[in-house]
């Protein structure tokens, strides 16, 4: 059976031994090689990294072998390497891009293939479209002479084994020191050192093991670490740092009297933060915290980029300081584009990704954790205390996402209904705007909003609500469920 290989919001992902096979990994690698050769960038080589998942080293070796067979040198990261570190290695090596094998926070049965272009951020749609077209040509057995590739034909459907071309090479490479130097220049480690913090770290068995503890430990922080060894099953759970998955971290923070708990997902591009009181700080809380810190403590001035599903508390801050807000579709690739092109000092998304001015346009959970420590150190307060200060100045917003399942038939009906959906009011408030950038978003007169986004693969709708009170949030959720019969 031939599986359709397509790139979603953050690369191609599949179930190991079902569609994420050695043949398919080689196929996608050859499609990437075709893109690199077509751009005339082959001699600069590609960085190749992987996380801690099952067969990671073996899949990575197949990628390196295929790239070499197409005359592309490889900088092969030694050991499990976080996605943001693999991305930054592009800058360290002046490579043409990177391939990162990771399924990020997905269940253990998954792995994934992410292509990161030379600008060291997620590939934009026009790039992944070219790669997908190359994949289709190879799967169809069509000539790919323009790319220097042979069709994907082989015995029993297997790709032919590559032969290394003369001059091609594969160099073992460690970006650890270069990344640490760079990130240490972005974060105020001197302030962290003066504060005498205590921090508990949970890398969730993932590729981020060793980074936060090294940097913070060298800054004099008292560090406690757990789940800091490789487990391809991630302790029987998902390597996703959410409020529900970080109960042990919450307990250790409170029991040890720590200032912070910091967690990373499977490839360390997403963050999870526990405050000193043991409470989970959501990304929709942390992003305004960080923007406030950059504006007030650091004195930075500049726009902020957020996805359509991310808190408008950022908008209130930007308005006070006379800065624009760039709203993007869901997917950090769009945030990264604004960081590169619009001079944004912060870009982030409600799912737990962020980056800042001076860093690469790739989400980085390590950076987020270090900036959390900087905030606590600089202000001499817990994150909750800083949040209360922000709420007093800008007002409080309550955010929640609901995942609502339907049947395929209902999904089609609701999608048709949403095209003309324009209620004059919701929850007693006038609807003042409709945004269809990614899904359907209605903005109310008092600043509350609701967003409905269909899943691209399941009979499922994601309903995001942000309101001025818990009561308004519940009322908006009820009315939308009733109106759309979700």
UniProtKB/TrEMBL annotation:
Catalytic activity: alpha-D-glucose 1-phosphate = alpha-D-glucose 6-phosphate
Domain Alpha-D-phosphohexomutase alpha/beta/alpha: 5-138, 178-278, 283-393
Key word Cell membrane present: no
Pfam families noted in UniProt: PGM_PMM_I, PGM_PMM_II, PGM_PMM_III, PGM_PMM_IV
Domain Alpha-D-phosphohexomutase C-terminal intervals: 436-481
Keywords: Isomerase, Magnesium, Metal-binding, Phosphoprotein
Family classification: Belongs to the phosphohexose mutase family.
Listed name of the protein: Phosphoglucomutase
Species assigned in the record: Desulfotomaculum nigrificans (strain DSM 14880 / VKM B-2319 / CO-1-SRB) (Desulfotomaculum carboxydivorans)
Upper lineage: Bacteria, Bacillati, Bacillota, Clostridia, Eubacteriales
